Amino acid sequence: MPLAEAKGLLETVSRSQSSSGGWGRPQEAPRVVPTEGSLRSTPATHPLLIRHQPADDIQALRELAVRCQRFSPVVGIEEPDSLLLDLTGCAHLFGGERKLSRQVQRCFEQRGFFIKTAIADSIGAAWAVAHFGRHQTEIVPAGQHESVLRPLPVKALRLTETVIETLAALDIRRIEQLLALPRASLPSRFGPEVIRRLDQASGEVSELITPIRPPEPVVAGREFEHPTGDHRALEVALQQLVEQIVGNLVQRQQGIQRLTVELKGALSECFAINFLRPCQSLSHIMELVLTQLERVVLTEKVAGLRVQAVATALLESRQTQLFAADDDPVAQRELEQLVDRMSNRLGKQRVVQSQLCPDPQPEFANRWEPLLDENERGNGGSVSPPVLPCSARPLCLQREPQAVEVTSRVPAGPPTYFHWKQTCYTVARYWGPERIETGWHRGRHVRRDYYQVETECGLRFWLFWRIGRADWFLHGEFD
Amino acid sequence: MPDPQPEKRRPLDLPAGERSASQETNAVPYAELHCRTNFSFLEGASHPDELVHRAQQLGLTALAITDRNSVAGVVRAHAAAKDVGLKLLIGAEVTPINAPPVVLLATDRAAYGRLCQLITAGRRRAPKGECELTFNDVAEHAQGLLACVPLVGIWRTFPAGRDRRALLQRYKDAFDDRCYALAELHRGPDDRRVLRRMMDAATKASVPLIAANDVHYHVPQRQFLHETLTAIRHGCTISQLGDRLFPNSERHLKSSAEMLTLFADDPAAVAHTAQVADRCRFSLDELRYQYPKELCPPEFTPIEYLKRLTADGANHRYPHGIPEKVRQLIDHELRLIEELRYEAYFLTVWDLVRFARSRDILCQGRGSAANSAVCYCLGVTSVDPERIDVLFERFISKERDEAPDIDVDFEHERREEVIQYLYEKYGRERAGMAATVITYRPRSAVRDVGKALGLSLDRVDTISKSLERTNGEEELAGRLQNAGLNPTSSVGRQLIGLVGQILDFPRHLSQHVGGMVLTAGPLCEMVPIENASMPGRTVIQWDKNDLETLGILKVDCLSLGMLTAIRKCFSLIKQHDGRKLTLATVPAEDPAVYEMVSRADTIGVFQIESRAQMSMLPRLRPQCFYDLVIEVAIVRPGPIQGDMVHPYLRRRSGEEPVEFPDERIQAVLQKTLGVPIFQEQAMRLAVVAAGFTPGEADQLRRAMGAWRRRGVIDAFRQKLIEGMDARGYSTEFAERLFNQIRGFGEYGFPESHAASFALLVYVSAWMKRHYPAAFTTALLNSQPMGFYAAAQLISDVRQHGVEVHPVDVNHSDWDCTLEPDATKARGPRSAGTLGDNPALRLGFRMVRGLSFAHGGVIIRQRNGVPFTSFDDFTHRTQLPNAALKKLSKADAFGTLGLNRRAALWHSLPEQKSLPLFDGATTEEPAVNLPSLSQKEQVVADYQTAGLSLRGHPIQFIRPLLDELQVVPSSELSHLPVDRRYRVAGLVLLRQRPSTAKGITFVTLEDETGTANLIIRQDVWERYRPIASHAGALIAHGHLQRLDEVIHLLVDRMEDLSRRLEGVELRSRDFR
Amino acid sequence: MSGPKNHNPNKHSAAIEQLAQQLRRYERTLQPTAGGNGVLSTGIAALDGLLPDGGISRGMLLEWLSEKTGGGAGTLAFTVAVQLMRADGACVVIDPAASFYPPAIGKLGDDLQRMIVVHPANGGDALWALEQSLRCRGVAVVVCRLGQAFERELHHHAYRRLQLAAETGGAIGLLLRPARYRVHPTWADVRLLVEPLPTVNSSKGRQLQVELIHCRGRNCGGIVTLEIDDETGDVRLASGLATATNPVRRAAGA
């Protein structure tokens, strides 16, 4: 017996978890009409308007469909807001339709969703009752769907807007009124749709549910009979588990992008490994796993292991244009492994590439982007660097401009002497000033006059003074 | 954050501080030769006059206005420069597609003409707003123009590696000794090296190097605005601009001292600018206007011809002899016209009117000179000089030496014919349409600035939609708050500040509604012509203010819906009882008309049908034509802002004595009981009471209006108050006068305009009074126009006892028509008349969405043989389903015995299959569609037509309303006042005249009539969603009744639309 | 995998052993890359002339000593690095101070896509990354500035390992070091001392004096004066004053 389930509309109104009042979409926010029930869990804050993202809604619906597979092996979706479950032969497992229905309700309520459910003989009837029935849970007894459908509005038949409008113009608003019309006169006036939908509701024409299949996670685990603190034993076990996973992936022609390793115990330890490209190489994976394992300080014995490839991808599906110029595949792979190795050991944020940005403010003219980033990396170096003379920018830029003491002959003029790291430098030459006034739209208006100065002995520095304030900073060295 | 310590600076109030380098001694003269105004749309960030004033403050020798491919801003700059005595150079930056950009400056009139031709050529071959030129185009027009080539432009547009020197050399070859290299330094990474390279490049090409600054704004503080504009231009946010931002604010006007600092290595480049400026001897003042020559037959001089035409016209107008007063007037006016050499202008207008009359297009002139005896004789106006007392020279100021102002209104449906006539007569090269500068209004400003600042589209929309049309700036902070944006936050302050600056900034040029420029020589040598968005239309780069400033002839051919309606009504009247009328022959001063007007029974009447006017009528009780002139002028923002309405009413009703401070003022204000109501009076007062010259008074008015110049306005205010003080008037009186003038500047009505309009008021009121059916028919056939929707006009005419018949396939024409008086249908009737009380038959034009062609098919196929059945109809007309559905929904098959639903049912199936069974009726099972109750009928009527001839939706919920103690609107006229009542109804219209300080007028309609609501701003705000959107509502409030003006001063509102579910309610909001 | 030894030397697993073996196999196959005709140009003719063999070979370590940052040694080293990278693969920059500012290298353009920058948190990590990079066959050149704080990590033993790594992988190492280390022994193949000269009016850019102060297995000595064009970034032999002394020294160096 099929069951249709209409979930509370995935709406665009939501409550934000934070009161900071940002304007973005809170990630993974409960995108549901706030009901009394779902509100309690979130602190009362200002309601936020969130832009409706239909594609995200569908994605969320698919995820929910996967979760519903505990109730039925066949779960489909009907856009924009419905889940369809085929309950044929399922209800008795849950103690009957009513109990099943209640469990479904509870399951969604716990996640903060408001839903309406209906069980009926046909998908059409269940959809109609779920959307237009009076109760949150409706169960249409077998064979009685027609009488239940009759008083419902024609909208309950899943008709297109134009048909509904035309019917409304004829003042045909309920299904029973539609049924009263001569069936033969319908197709010429409304096309084949009305008859089809009526038949689907009555069950005379069958509908199929296209089941949603979840991606299978690739997991391998092992419980030890006796908890162990021996690294060597762990290494061996890990090697086996990783082999298992890689073997699994090889069949699917997939590689690992992100791998997590959990050392189970009272205080579980967990670490993750990321790869520049989908990886199948057992030795490379193991090298990185072991490097990480070495850094784990075990405070207690490990009771079990769990290794999971949380992100996988088809091999080479993620063509990073990184080193495309290289035509030597071995060198290429070694380089990628070098990046993996350094990123996993030093931290992703420390292995980076430069992205030049045409921003007038020197600090923002270069952005460091981690090579190994879960989010797709920025769209490459398509931005051409600003047209500046080569000597205009220092090779070494201070992370923060450093305050320096400067003497100049003219107020606000070029420096004559300055102190920097316990040394007094005499300025022999200078270039500039180069004036930079920007940043107001970032909320930080920056106004600087930059001088490139050369000391008597030929060292070159980049100094600026803040326009309108008599303070000087050293911002870089032309090394 | 990168900075060592927060550089705390509120972005929008940059202290000038260290930058005020202005007052230094300018040892070396400097002229800025490369400067954009905001007429380089979204590139320049200062108004032309701001730049001029700043240049003058800085002591520049001269300033060149060089907008990109445009001279749209030069006239404003010219006017400002004349005021402050700055030498202005006229030019443009031209951007050939195959050569570096070049700044062209006009040395003399001929060179200026070539510049205009060049820009015209480029603009005409490119889509609107763009310009497409090649180097050859530039070279061909080179004579007399100076070419200043910005070297940075060469370097930027042409990558290294190509022979850049050749590029400069090409210009050198084309312009010879009139070619210069422009060096521009903006405190980049190494200006000295750049300058050295520039000096090298110039020397190698043996072209003099001169300094310029590529000015984009007058003061550095405009940097933020400039960056915002840049972001708007590129359609991105400011933070996405990257290197499209200038790294600093150096592109502002600089003094010669500042330029010398930058050009320390080559001071000659700065000094040289003055010599370049000296070579330019052209001033816009030289654009002396020449009238077209073909205005009169060769055997006459223009004045002779004008005199002759006037004499002929006078004889025609006064067949029984010309009154002495009129004869004197004509002589006097002709003498003035001859003296000021305006005959060509009058002939031009006469020619237009003559053409219109020959095509039977109704028209009427208005404007300063329109209501002269000469114009009456020429047929330009129909206001008999005997009926109004207007002094001619008041409008033709000898001092101003400007063309008189006559606008001619034409029927809105036929104005295009007149415009095409002008193009044909003078040719495209000599006739052009004036531009309208589209400027930033609060809404567009918020939308664009918000997007540039990176606010989300949703939020920008929320804010900008919540801004009402009229009052913007002061509301903004509040609106931000409502949209969830803190107005004191950084973004909030930036938004408010930038919006304030960007308001009135030009965005693009559009075509003026009807201003035509006609010239003797080629127009494109006077001003560039460019493509308008409408295909086949071209506009010049100047708007009407610019033309006025330069004293260039412009005829305004405007369109006026009421003229269409009046013409249609004239022909209906003729059809009705054979009476032939014209604007001039409608019986004058009919007491019945004034009686009706005094009752405010004026729905459909020109001008005085608005709520604001209607509430004034019972108090003013117009008794004669001049009262109508006052009525038209008084309900305007000017008089209302100046607080003149109430004193006038009090004086008129005798509550307040009519007094004058002295005789001079009495002379000015005699006619209007001592209260200035017309624009001319306010100007005149400035003359007699404050010692202004007429020219100054006019400048004052303009300074108040179209030209925003703070400093100038303050100077005038000072002068006015001092002048009046010196003549012994109180400061209070002076302040009030100043406010009045300010009001007039923006919205005032000159007496002559009011008089022209008043005539249309009178004529339309006369029609409404005597031929209500014909009048309404004409209005319906001229829609869209006026304040009211068709439904409201129909319901009004029904209340006047006219029967209205529905649209019917067997009876309707395309237009609405008059049908014979049913009661006398069988009686004998003279041919061509319809009886005393004809009925109105709605036409197919009232069927929503039905095309004119389909309507025509029905009428042709009917051709005297009525349709007998639906099948007969579909068979004969072969109309597509969509058209059948529209007719069904409009219930147009009544005479075929089909109601709306049945007809719709029949029109649903595809009709194509029929030919096979020609004439045979297809067998169809019978259907039982739900039957319609009366209420459903009415509701359906409203859904399809916006009105019902069967009843009113409100009547069906009257029992409920009774329970809620809601009174019918008809009872408001006799219920005791100053008590609270409730009324309910459909919202007919919402109006917020700019006259009323935030007050909104709402009219409700129920089955008994209409109720007038007054909603104050605070109440409006409180009930904003209902107040601004509900289709029907219940209003609670105090009843006020003064004379016959009945209002409910609302303090609470409830939404009623849900109770009327199914009725599609469309009010006419804010028209 | 030898880097982590200082952490947990006693916890070598079979896997690591296996990997080490793998590496050794690589070493054997790669060893002979640096051959006689495998000499690469630095892109600066005058510098090539100063160097033994007239350029740089794969697997070489070069030290660039300078008194203070701001003297131009970095610019020279990066100019060479970009040249080598263009010829031969990727470039790794190891910069614990995170002060390297790519916009300074005006002509880099798309090459930035082949430049990996590492910001290690400490000297140990820096040396580990340096060694890993030198050992990697996909890397053409490694530029490393340890900075004052971490220089001491570069002791004799560690340095030797770098040298081995470079020989294994074939990458060229450019080490920027303070001039006071000129008295310390080195495993580098070449040691250059870079000193800035005050800019003179006639020049198109700054001038640097470069002296070859150590060269493994050769006589050293030789000094050139280079000029870096301020506008184009081109490095060439300074004209004028330097020419007088130069040929003599160069002859000695070659």
Structure report:
- The complex is a heterotrimer of chains A (479), B (1071) and C (254).
- Chain A is α+β, with helices and mostly antiparallel strands and 479 residues long.
- Helices cover 27% and strands 30% of the residues of chain A.
- Chain A has twelve helices and 19 strands.
- In chain A, α4 crosses α9 (193-202), α10 runs antiparallel to α11 and α11 packs parallel to α12.
- Mean pLDDT of chain A is 76; it is low at 1-51, 317-321 and 376-383.
- Chain B is an alpha/beta fold and 1071 residues long.
- Chain B is globular and about 95 Å long.
- Residues 1-24, 825-832 and 913-921 of chain B have low confidence and may be disordered.
- Chain C has a nine-stranded mixed sheet, sandwiched between helices.
- Chain C has a domain at 38-191: P-loop containing nucleotide triphosphate hydrolases (Rossmann fold, 3-Layer(aba) Sandwich).
- With 254 residues, chain C is an alpha/beta fold.
- Chain C has helices at residues 14-30, 45-50, 73-88, 123-135, 156-169, 246-253; strands spanning 61-66, 90-94, 115-118, 139-145, 172-178, 190-197, 205-215, 223-229, 235-237.
- Chains in contact: A-B, A-C.
- At the A-C interface, α10, α11, α12, β12 and β14 of A face α1, α3, β3, α4 and β6 of C.
